[in-house]
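Re-run requested by the PI after the first attempt was lost when the workstation crashed. Everything re-entered from the original request form. Ligand of interest: zinc ion.
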Amino acid sequence: MEERLTKAKEQFEAFLKERGMRRTAERSEILRKALEFDGHFDIERLKQAMDDEGFHVSLATVYNTVDLMYESGILRKHSFDGQQARFEVAANNHLHLVCLQCGKIREVSDRALFPAEAPKRLPGFHVSYYTATFYGLCNACARKNRQEQKKRAKN
Ligand SMILES: [Zn+2]
Ligand SMILES: [Zn+2]
């Protein structure tokens, strides 16, 4: 397991201990699976991934555990326009490009768009992390729309 994932695991276990909560087999499995996701996931996708592995837990348990992981700071939560909450392992700062048509999310971590000094320009506020969301059309959808427009124009 990658170092950052090991760290996330340790952080979550320390959090549970601090809260006086047990590290159950179910919680450990949900944690492991969540850390395996490369990028964003929603609760249902996580539950599905666990079912696929033959590890059956209730949706409520997945919800609760993901909430705990979020509270412990190892997950970030995003509520993109018109979509259910998405989670991702807290890592680098990045932008989200959300396609309004197909819902696909792309991540961009271009330094030019993310000036390192930005948090310092917010006096009286301590920034933990920052993100921004750009809404629009992905290339595939834009192309599809153009083709459909052409088709309509011919008819
Ligand atoms: Zn799209
Ligand atoms: Zn992201």
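Saved to the shared folder this time. The two ends are 56 Å apart (CA to CA).
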